[in-house]
Design brief:
alpha+beta; two-stranded antiparallel sheet; 4 strands
């Protein structure tokens, strides 16, 4: 998957913030959220913090979402933080066992019962998008290019 320039936030993070925001919005008016990441090498952590800062300060979507999501991540040690280890396991299961539409490589059948359990955790938000009042936005998304639309169209 093509990667964005270092100053741009990767699309998977933008999708994460979008879906997290919709979940919080649907949960209730007082709902707020924090983002926790597995600790990265120090310079990579600073790059991510700068990207998130630009996203939440300079984009309309980011500014709106900063009302519910604390726009600065927490970095934790995954070996000391069970939640991050669980997120890693879920990501592994989705990657190797979840299949839909465009995902044509065979899934690992021995993961099916675990993937089925993970699929029960998916979140579906319904929003009005481009005139469609019942547009479904699932917490799982297929992303084949990590660059933003602006970055892709600029080339």
């Amino acid at each position: 998957s093509p990667r964005p320039m270092p100053e741009h936030l990767r699309k998977d993070y933008a999708y994460l913030f979008e879906r997290f925001y919709y979940f919080l919005e649907d949960y209730g008016p007082a709902s707020m959220g924090i983002v926790a990441f597995d600790e990265l090498e120090r310079s990579r952590s600073h790059i991510l913090i700068d990207q998130m800062d630009r996203y939440f300060r300079t984009t309309l979507n980011g500014q709106a979402r900063a009302g519910r999501i604390i726009p600065e991540p927490f970095f934790v040690h995954s070996d000391l933080t069970t939640g991050v280890q669980l997120a890693d396991i879920v990501a592994y299961l989705i990657s190797w066992g979840f299949r839909t539409g465009e995902l044509t490589e065979p899934a690992r059948p021995e993961l099916k019962k675990f993937v089925d359990s993970v699929c029960l955790l998916r979140y579906k938000a319904v929003r009005t998008v481009e005139g469609n009042a019942n547009f479904q936005i699932w917490s799982f998304a297929i992303i084949d290019d990590l660059r933003s639309r602006e970055e892709r169209e600029g080339q």
